[in-house]
Amino acid sequence: MGEVIPTNKTVLGYKGLHLYHSAMSNCSMRVRMALEEKGLPWESHHLDLTKKETHTPEYFGINPNGVVPALVHDGRVIIESDDIIEYLDGRFPQPPLSPVDPAQRAAMHDWLKLATGIHVKGVKTWIYHNRMRGKLKMSDAEMDSYRRLQTNAELLAFHEKSRSEEGFTDAEVERSRSLLRDSFDKLEAALERQEWLVGGSFSLADIAWVPLHFTLVTSNFAFDDYPHVDAWQQRIRARPSFQKGVVQWCPKF
Questions:
Q1: What is the C-alpha end-to-end distance of the chain, expressed in Å?
Q2: pLDDT grade, residue 1 (50/70/90)?
């Protein structure tokens, strides 16, 4: 989705980099890591998901999907974590986090697209079912308010399901497991041949995927069959950007 025109005009006067984010959000983790890799100063606007601080007219006026993250740079609003990290890499090109080679850059975009494509039906469904079930319930009044704010059909359907007593069906949970297995099978195959997901350098592709591993590993998703993924995530955990962008905000998911 990229850049949006906010209806909450207070952000138009912001100078520098301002990030609306949540400690526990894997999408926020991506952006914090990219900011740290670039060594960029940024102002934190932390929103507590457990208190539903994203479900307000004020925040929907910044991000029309009512989710984190949202980046405000000198009054410009960028949403969607993959768009934000690409924006940061283009606007602040040093150190580079994208390959120069066109084929490798296309491969990086494929990894970003895959991570985005499985986010709701794969990652969010699995984590909400196995880790967050019952912790982010919405009352009828809260849900009515959310319905009035949310125009994204996929997110609305997700929260209708996640707030219900029944939760996700066995078929939906199995579908999420299958999506995750298929995706991490691809990561394992790629990392069997090389140290990083694209070419010979750490890139936005790695930043897009490592927070998924971090949040899934304590959400009962089995990584026993992924030795190369495990070695890869251990390499990333040693990076200052992971420590500052992930661990300092969310020591344990």
A1: 28
A2: low
